[in-house]
Every structure is written in structure tokens, then in C-alpha cells.
Amino acid sequence: FEAIPGKGAKGIVGGQDVALGNAAMMRDLGLDPEPHTEAVGRLRDEGKTVLFIAVGGRLAGWLAVADTIKASTPAALAALRNRGIRVIMATGDERRTAEHVARQLGIAEVHAGVLPADKARLVADLKSAGYHVAMAGDGINDAPALAQAQVGIAMGTGTDIAMESAGVTLVKGDLRGIVKARRLSQGTMRNIRQNLFFRSEEHTSELQ
User: Fold this and answer.
1) In three state form, how does the secondary structure of the chain look?
2) Which residues pair with 153 in a beta bridge?
3) Burial, 36: exposed, middle or buried (Cβ in 10 Å; 0-12, 13-18, 19+)?
4) Is the Cβ–Cβ distance between 100 and 46 less than 8 Å?
5) Beta carbons within 8 Å of 68's beta carbon, 6+ residues apart
6) Which listed site, 48, 76, 114, 205, has its alpha carbon 20 to 30 Å from 87?
């Protein structure tokens, strides 16, 4: 078995070479997924991720999978935007799939079809432009970007490597936790500054 970052996985099943992954992986194997473009396109327009299956060096079919958007996610993203936070989606999914999900969540900026290194590069570019970047993710492919961000936020329902790469883990995988964590951190820093100010005032009075 071998996992191919950002593309899929391949191994030997019952003595045959089997591969499961995206269109880019099929092309790497010398297979052409284009004859199925129309049917696959309809699935992507419904927000589904399409994984092609190759058996014995031949394209054998495909699977369509979809993540259900949590009921709490639209409100969480709206709360972040209301606080002046720029929300960006970066995903390895094909653009039609990504844009379908982005429309449901009100996300205007979408980076689709990106590999793990591309996600990390996007974070680095935003940091270079002067942004303070928080990256939220749950998968193996998110780990480099989580480590690159000033604040890496992993989902407790995700992979171990994502949690190891992040500084913050949301135990329930609920994005509303980001809003709560930010509010808590702001309150903590406010208290620290107040304590430093009062301590400084006390020290000045002693000197006088």
C-alpha cells in the first residue's frame, strides 16, 4: 500500500494492482479519465468528490463521496467574517466540487485542486503579504499548511498528523470553536496587558 499525497492511494489486492484517486493520479498511471467527463461533471456539480478506480492497469470505474456540511458551519463562518476575518477555502478537490460547497457557505475565494505543498505555499504567501494566518484542517494533506500558519487549528475528528502539526485542536471538530477560542485568547491577552499596566503603575509608585 502507498498513499500518494494529494492524489490517492495504490496497492495490491488479490494479486492485482489497484489504484484509487483523482484524475491527476489516473493520468500519472497513463490512464485517461476524460471519456467519463460528462457523468463525473454532474456529480461534481452536486458537490461530490469523484475518485477513480483502476484495476490491473485499466480504468474500472469511480466512486462519488461527499462531506456533509455541518449545520453549525455557515453560522461559524458568518461570525468570523463579521469580525473582519478573511475566509479562504483551499482544497484538493476539483474546482466544480469546491465551488458548489463554497456557494453553500458563502465563501468567495476558493483555491481548488491544490496539493499539500500548494496549501503551505498559500499560507506562506499570505504571511508575506502581512496577514496573520490561522489555518483549519483535518487531513494528512493539511499538515504542511497547519505547521506553516501562525495558528494551526486541527479538527479532533481528523487525522493524528493534523493534530500533531497544529497548535490548537477543536475536540468536536465544530468551527464555532474557532470563534470561541479567538474570543478567549483576546480576553486572556486583555487581562495580561491590564496586569502588566497595573504592575507597572505599582512599580512607578514605589520608585516615587
Assistant:
1) CEEECCCEEEEEECCEEEEEECHHHHHHCCCCCHHHHHHHHHHHHCCCEEEEEEECCEEEEEEEECCCCCCCHHHHHHHHHHCCCCCEEECCCCHHHHHHHHHHHCCCEEECCCCHHHHHHHHHHHHHCCCCCEEEECCHHHHHHHHHCCEEEEECCCCHHHHHHCCEEECCCCCHHHHHHHHHHHHHHHHHHHHHHHHHHHHHHHHC
2) 136, 168
3) middle
4) yes
5) none
6) 48
Predicted confidence pLDDT, tens digits, the chain (208 residues): 998 888 899 999 999 999 999 988 999 999 988 777 778 888 888 888 889 999 999 999 989 988 788 889 999 999 999 999 999 999 988 888 899 999 999 999 999 989 899 999 999 999 999 999 999 998 888 999 999 999 999 988 888 888 999 988 888 888 898 988 888 888 888 888 777 766 655 555 554 5
Rounded Cα gap, residues 157 and 160, in angstroms: 9
Residue 187 near residue 195 (C-beta atoms within 8 A): no
For the range 113-119, what are the long-range contacts, defined as Cβ-Cβ under 8 Å and sequence gap of 24 or more?
113/24, 114/6, 114/90, 115/5, 115/6, 115/7, 115/141, 116/5, 116/6, 116/140, 116/141, 116/142, 116/143, 116/144, 116/145, 117/144, 118/90, 119/90, 119/144, 119/145
